[in-house]
Amino acid sequence: MKKNIVTEVVDHELCIGCGLCAALCPEEALEMTWNRYGEYNPLEIEPCTRGCGLCLKVCPFADHEEDEGTIGEALYGSVPWIGHRPEVGYHLATFVGHADEHRSAGASGGMATWLLERLLAEGIVDHVVCVAPTGDPERLFSFSVFDDPPAVRAGAGSAYCPVEMSGAIRQILENPGRYAVTGLPCYIKAIRLAQKKDPKLSARVVVTVGLVCGQLKSRPFTEYIASLAGLVGEVKGVRYRGKSQEQPATNYHYAFTSTAGDERKIFWNDGIAEAWTNRWFTPRACNYCDDVFAECADVTFMDAWLPDYSKDYRGTNLVVVRSPLIEDLIRRGVRDGGLLAGPVPVEDVIQSQAAVVEIKRRHLAHRLYLDLEMGRVVLRKRVCPAREKSPSLRREIALKDRMRRSSRAFWAESEDPDAGRLREAMVPDLKRLSRGRKMARIMALPIRTVIYVRGHFRGKHHE
Questions:
Q1: Is residue 246 part of a domain?
Q2: What are 230-275's pLDDT values in tens digits?
Q3: How many domains in the chain?
Q4: What residues does the 4Fe-4S ferredoxin-type domain cover (predicted)?
Q5: Collapsing DSSP states into helix, strand and coil, what is residue 295?
Q6: Measured between alpha carbons, how far is residue 423 from residues 212, 226, 399 in Å?
């Protein structure tokens, strides 16, 4: 049997559902469909007779010799004055700030929307590809192609549900022009891999805009949070990053509308955080991503999760720039007054995503070690397999992965799933996790005490 995207990726639950394989298949043998867990996967609708393997060559989670590091080096390594950090990749400039005109509608500071509009307004690109709401309960968000600056605003905000870009990529291939494409790290990597195989895609995608990502979520994640909020009816629309004057930026809310006309709102601290941080409804592929900062993108946007900015409910962006063209646009935007932004140390950018870096590097090393021990497929990553030394962290990684699997299975197998029953099923593991953290803190007390005492007496000695 010939190797293809289904046998090598989908069957191992490593598909992230980007859709590049379906878009580029020369036989049009693949179609993106929902799997039982509410995630996009390619389905073979026609027998593959050519066996060209292109589907695997453009997959961000297939076994490649190239990774985000080698791709980034080829794209940006020769840019004058550019720096490099292993956590963030190449960086020409780093900024912090916001765009006043777009801030209220954006997930954070509105700078990504500002940039996409500016790219169109200055004729640098003819089209912008980004995610926008559909109003369709079966597919709440999709990649759309916009041709004028005001229309881009429909894509402002975040989308924490599956989207696939096979249709948008086909549109790029069928319609000449210059395109800017937005995407999460794995999606941008897939585009870069595809550009190496398709000259049209290479010539037409002239700007890539990345978004920092800790994990994706399946469609049931939205259904679970809507149920937790008490929504009546099927979810028809959702805004994932609502802002409230009485809350800091970190305690944003989801606002739902249903097919029954019901409206509900729920804040991060009221249940979203529990599901998110414990990796409920997270695809397995996310366990094997080591790219936090979309290292293959010309520019990457993220929230400024730093003490100086996170209390401002209006939101603030951090930006990593790798392209001289994008750096020039942002600096001119600051001079013109469209942006209120300034330089920020790259160390602050990395610190803002410290928890995600920990998961995608240290946790990943332990997951790869477990795969090696269990005789499973071990993906080639920039992180080497290594057994985690901390017993408490090993336990946490194991418990969170069990909750990830359990949440996906619970929603898929329940005839009438609801938030209350799922959370009840998660309680034993939540308690184990809580006990483990308490024990870790207790065990750390003697160490901290010794460090304090040594420092105290060392100071006395030098007085």
A1: no
A2: 999 999 999 999 999 999 999 999 999 999 999 999 999 999 999 9
A3: 1
A4: 6-35, 36-69
A5: coil
A6: 28, 14, 15
